[in-house]
Amino acid sequence: MLRLWKATINSRNGLAFAFRSEQAVREEIYALLVSLPVAWFIGATAMRAVELVCAVAFVLVVELLNTAIEKLADRLTMDHDKQIGRVKDMGSAAVGVALLMAGAFWIFALVERLGFV
């Protein structure tokens, strides 16, 4: 139980630090909070609503990993390094793909709700 408690505290600390230091994390947390009630209106079923919320949560997960990569890279060197720049770009691309996926899920659910599917 102690290990679980410590892991929970570490996770809370990491999320709090990311929230304080990264605008993108704040925006995605706000989007997640907004998605909770909106998903119940758009989702044709309870499972679809859960899927919509999970899609937004997935974007947050990828953003947190991208933020961790960027913070680690900046800790290694603040000098411009071509390879580190590429690594940061790949992390950003991962966030972009996650956003596209989430957007596709939400668009599909909206089309489904409006009866076009």
- Relative strand content: under 5%
- Number of separate structural domains: 1
Judged by helices, strands and strand pairing, the structural class is mainly alpha
Unreliable spans are none
Task: Draw up the topology in text.
Blueprint: H1 2-21, H2 23-42, H3 46-76, H4 82-113
Helix pairs in contact: 1-2, 2-3, 3-4
Describe this structure as you would to a colleague.
- By secondary structure, this protein is mainly alpha-helical.
- The protein has a single domain (1-114), classed as Helix Hairpins (Orthogonal Bundle).
- The protein contains four helices and no strands.
- Helix 2 packs antiparallel against helix 3 (46-76).
- It is flat.
- Substrate binds at residues 3, 24-28, 63, 92.
- It is a multi-pass membrane protein.
- Belongs to the bacterial diacylglycerol kinase family.
Quick rundown:
With 117 residues, this protein is mostly helical.
Keywords:
ATP-dependent diacylglycerol kinase activity; nucleotide-binding; Helix Hairpins; 117 residues; single chain; cell membrane; mainly alpha; lipid metabolism; 88% helix
